Amino acid sequence: MRNLIRPGQIIFAAGIIALGVLQFFAKDFIVGRPPAVKWANNIPGKQAWAFASGIILIISGLFILAKRKATPVAFFIGIFIFIFSFLCRHLPHLFSVTSAEDAIWQINAYKTLALCGGAFIIARSFQKKWYKIQLSLNCILLAFFFIISGFAHFKFHDFIIKDFIPAYIPFHAFWTYFCGIALIAGGVGLLIKQTRRWAAALTGLMILLWFFLLHIPRASYAPHDYGEWMGVCESFTFSGILFTLAGLSSK
Fold this sequence. Notes:
mainly alpha, 11 helices
């Protein structure tokens, strides 16, 4: 399973590059799907910032592919996403929601934190020495996102069954609940040292299958919907993070 580290790094880098390219089409900073808060929409030069940040992500991904300054670059990606997606846009939005239940289901905010934790895991994978507690803390961010996403399969089951799963896939209800349970199990497995490598490897494989079977078909049906292309890029990126984590956890 240690052999998954380098493929995971490559997949992560390719996903980050794809997200950077997508910003040129979306004309916004889209990593972590930050909400459109009012003050952010009124900032001058928003489109220029989208292009500049896209270039930054593309160059960062290329550095990781080339294994050049990969540790600081991956750390930079995590901090970059944390500041400009979570702190600047998700956090103000979280403070604006009116109830605790609404705050719980702000899944994209937790996705942003999971991407940050994943970038830090990628950074650690290039180091010869690293501390297990650092790996565990980043796993908590990933695990919480997967667990809450798993429960979302039950809360929003009507949307997933009727609108989210492509028509060519049979047994929508079964796959909705099965994948919800699998996400919860994967998230819990990431929290337990003894099961972490298998949880990471199997969850990464599941998400990679979604990349091919779910997200690419959905994006091909709606080629101008950047939200669908974000799903393509995000699923690929997360699978890379999880494969890298599986390799690190087996060392």
